[in-house]
What we know:
This protein is of the alpha/beta class. The chain has helices at 16-23, 46-55, 79-83, 88-94, 99-110, 117-126, 134-142, 150-159, 172-182, 210-224, 241-246, 257-262, and strands spanning 2-6, 27-32, 35-39, 59-63, 74-77, 163-171, 186-195, 198-204, 231-235, 249-253, 265-267. The strands form two sheets. The chain has a seven-stranded mixed sheet, sandwiched between helices. A four-stranded antiparallel sheet has the order 2-3-1-4, covered by helices on one side. Helix 4 (88-94) runs antiparallel to helix 5 (99-110) and helix 5 (99-110) runs antiparallel to helix 6 (117-126). The longest helix is centred in the C-terminal third of the chain and has 15 residues, at 210-224. The radius of gyration is 20 Å and the shape is elongated. It starts with a strand and ends in a 12-residue tail after the last strand.
Amino acid sequence: xxxxxxxxxxxxxxxxxxxVALSRGTGSTPIDAFAIRIEGADPDQRADLEVYCGTxxxxxxxxxxxxxxRDFGLVAMDxxxxxxxxxxxDEIADFCGLKAEVASITEASMRGEIKDFNExxxxxxxxxxxxxxxxxxxxxEERLRLSPGAExxxxxxxxxxLRTLLVSGxxxxxxxxxxxxxxxxxxxxxxxxxxxxxxxxKVLGEIVNDGVKARTLRETCAxxxxxxxxxxxxxxxxxxxxxxxxxxxxxxxxxKPVVRAAASVAFDHVGLDGLLRLF
Length: 279
C-alpha cells in the first residue's frame, strides 16, 4: 500500500526516515511541501503510525497504488463542523442566551451518547421558539466560516469531474446559501418553521437524521448512475456514520472518536484539501 503523510505546516525532512522505517516502506516521494508518499507501506503498522503521527501532529492514510480522484463520481459532505467550522444551531441559540445548553446536547449527540437524533434535534430547536429569524442571517454573516481547505478541495474535486452533495442535520437556510456560494450540485437539510418573522421552535417535514443522510447519498448516486463505492463521504459526528459506511472512501474530519475509528481516513490536523494529496 501507499502511505500518505501530511502536515499542516511544511513537513520536516527529519520525519521521512523514521516514517519509512516505521511503516516498513520501500521508499518515499515528496508530494508537495506538506506531504510525502511512502511506497510499499505495511497497513499492519497502523498502531505504531497512529502514535508517531499523533505525537507530531501529522495525518496519515493508506491508499491503494494507482488510485485516482477521478475514479470517484461524488464527494458528499456534512455541513456543521465539517464543511464549516461551527455548529449553526449552537450559534443560533447564542442569540437567545442558550448556547451552553444547546451545545451540550449537540456535543452529546455527535459523540453518539444520544442515540435518537430526531429527539435531540427536536429538543434543541424547541429552545429557539420566539427568536427573530434575522438571527439566522447574523449567524451566516458574522460567524459561519468555511473549514480550512474547503474551497481548494471542492475546486480539485470538480476539476476531477466529481459532483458535490451537502447533506446536513442542520438547516436549509445555511445549506442553500452555501450551495449558491460554492456552486454545489445537491443539498439536503432540515427546514426551520418561521411564522411572522420568528422561529416557532419546530422543524417542517422529515428530519434529516443518519438514515436520511444515507438514503440521500444512495439517491444521489442513483441520479448520477454510479455505485456508492464511487462516493467520497466526509463527516465528523455519529449521525454521519451510516452515510460514511455507504461510500467507497470515508473521511473523518476533526471528528468524534467513534467516527474517526470507523473512517477510511482521518484528518485531525490538515484541512479538507488533504483529500487531494491522497491521490
